[in-house]
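Loading example: each entry is read as four labelled lines plus one structure line.
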Amino acid sequence: MHNKLTVVSMSQEKKELIISKANALIQKSGYAAMGMRELAKAVGIEAPSLYNHLQSKEEILNQTCFTLGRKLLIALEEVNDIYFDAEQKLRTAIRNHVEIITHDLSAAYVFIHEWKHLSEPSLSEFKQLRDKYEAGIREIVEAGEKEGIFKETDLKFATLSILSAVNWIIEWYKPEGTMTPIQIAEKISDFILQGLTRDKRFN
Amino acid sequence: MHNKLTVVSMSQEKKELIISKANALIQKSGYAAMGMRELAKAVGIEAPSLYNHLQSKEEILNQTCFTLGRKLLIALEEVNDIYFDAEQKLRTAIRNHVEIITHDLSAAYVFIHEWKHLSEPSLSEFKQLRDKYEAGIREIVEAGEKEGIFKETDLKFATLSILSAVNWIIEWYKPEGTMTPIQIAEKISDFILQGLTRDKRFN
DNA sequence: CCTACCGATCGGTAGG
DNA sequence: CCTACCGATCGGTAGG
């Protein structure tokens, strides 16, 4: 029993290694340009051996896009369940998003930019997941308006501003840099909230 | 004489048609995934005939990245020459950027995301061009601080926020939408300036 | 996990 | 601008 479980989990570990190496290569040169031979070399095996762990090249894309998408969505739903105040919700949601994205930059890159290489029906499923996440962010902004904390804004525009700020991070974030993910999240939150918060003088 | 000029400019037009069709295909599926046969079909000729207009596939990437990069940089330098006030400079720079990017979304996509497929020495040249542009935006923010119009901020962070807002547009902008590029630019400027402007009460 | 190998497709050239 | 074609490389399979 113990033996079998070990084998299963070792196999799982190897698969995760392959996917993580793949994401790094995809971040460097894009999904289409990443070759399975190149990936095999990075892993330290021959190309056909990859197919003992994967059904196809696209499985890598699927795994990464949906794992990260679900992770982000669950974190967002938790925020909506736990917190009451819209500002607190938004700050926590932004912090979660930044932490998830900076935790694995390569995976984040694949999630943000390479999902379009998914084929149907995964492509449509993925778009739904994304839309749901965007809707969750929009709901927070909407709640802030209703609470009278945020001024009335173009909901769509505010949501896009938030997503652009948190997703653009992957274009410049370096783990060796001086700012921690939490500090980055705080700065982004301050910046966004300054644009959203109703001026205190009028309350 | 007239004849020769006509031939040259017709040839130039065809090349531009090819590059524009190519950018649309690259936006859809990425540079590496775009095939020269697919491109030829979109243009209405056979694949080998493309090479009467292009030296190589990469020439498409080169043309688009550097044409757009120079266009953006020239617009930014003009702003710095003409205007005095930092707020005016920033608003105009953002408006120019948004107008250039929305004018040809496919080209903008290639410029923003696909430049990494350039090979040396073009790759290094391109990075220099980008850095120069980023430095130009940062200078405006810096000028605003010195003028006492903007509060002191993390320069790097403010610059990245501006670039993230204006570049994220290509992920959602649809020409059929209700907002014009100028309106989008205005909203972004308002949003950014709200985060940057020194509170009037303390002046 | 490997060796041997498949058909398909890639960017690009020769020659007209 | 076309037909005919090149070597290289692609994702993936058979069989052990």
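Residues 1-5 of chain A have pLDDT under 50 and may be disordered.
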